[in-house]
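It is worth pausing here to work through a concrete case rather than discussing structure prediction in the abstract. The textbook approach is simple: state the sequence, then state the predicted structure, then interpret. We follow exactly that order.
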Amino acid sequence: MRRESPPLVGGLVAVALLLPGCRSTQTEYEQIVRANAEARAAAESGRYDVAIARWNQVRIADPLFSVEPHLGLALALRSLQENDEALDVLDTGIEFFPEDGDLRRVRGRLLVDLGFRRAAEADLEVVTRAFPQEPIAWSELAQVQLDLCCPKLASDTFDRALAHEGCPSSILPHAARANVGAGRYLRARELYAGAIQHAPEDLVLLGEAVAATNAWLATDQPPPDTFVDEAIGWGERACALDPQDAPVHVGVAALLESSGEDGRAITFCRRAVEVDGLDANAVARLARLYARTGEVDLACAMFDRALALDLEPDLAATLAAERDAACAAVPSGAPGSEPEAEGAEPRDASAPAADAAVDAADVAAEEATVAAAPPLRSVLPMREPDPR
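Step two, the predicted structure:
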């Protein structure tokens, strides 16, 4: 837990406000102004030891002189990684200037860096009151709220940031993540579309947009087909940019499967299994796709391959039941259906089929399919306002 402010800070404030001797004379004031200017110049040139000494002189001579000595001293200490000392200086400065947005902003950011997000939230709320037209102020508050697992509150605060002209596009992905966390997928899709327009080859953005669309598909109100097609386009672009990204390949496969394009889904899923054969999600999805398309021998092999991985007990039980159902459909006389000769060693019927699923010929066929795929879909226009 964050330690409390020094116990004498409040007393010092009262003394400074009540005792005339704590306020400077004209000559002393001129000396304070000069020392403050020297401190500023020293800080700008990186001579933090000089800046710290001068600003300490100013704060001792007249703590109510201005915000700058408190703020500048804290920033100089932060530059030297003396965070605890910087926090003490900010605590004192805020006692003298409780509604100063700059002091609150610096302390809020420092508290975030130190892991005290709940305390930082209070400071950053003051910053939004001090600078209500500043998008960054709202965005920093929203990010802390998101880190505190309050996605709905964070998404509303991000909207406050996005409502201002000149809001940087870098806020869009963060706002999209907050809306995904809040289950506001329509708004998240709009924000991802805007972010991707600014950074069309950002692999993180493209992958997140695919994952968000798949999460949307799992809800009671799945997205329109046009949004799914849009997300497939984003996923195809990501796969083209990074053919080794197995999770995105699986995500695209899931979207294609939801659109009834099982053949293309198998292509992407097989590529994912080739890249990462230990990805249980990829192997299990490929097994189910093979089962649905009638490739029973390949389905059985892939189910066996998935069950050989380190799975959660519930998933393992589900896959085992699906395997039994799928493999029960293997016709007599099909590979693997003949009974074992008495006394013979058990044979691994799944190995040849598993190899066939991902052998070099399959890889070549997959590459040909991807090469012949239709052009990437273009980004759709922004949607109408969210009716929430």
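Step three, interpretation. The mean pLDDT is 84. DSSP finds 20 helices and no strands in the chain.
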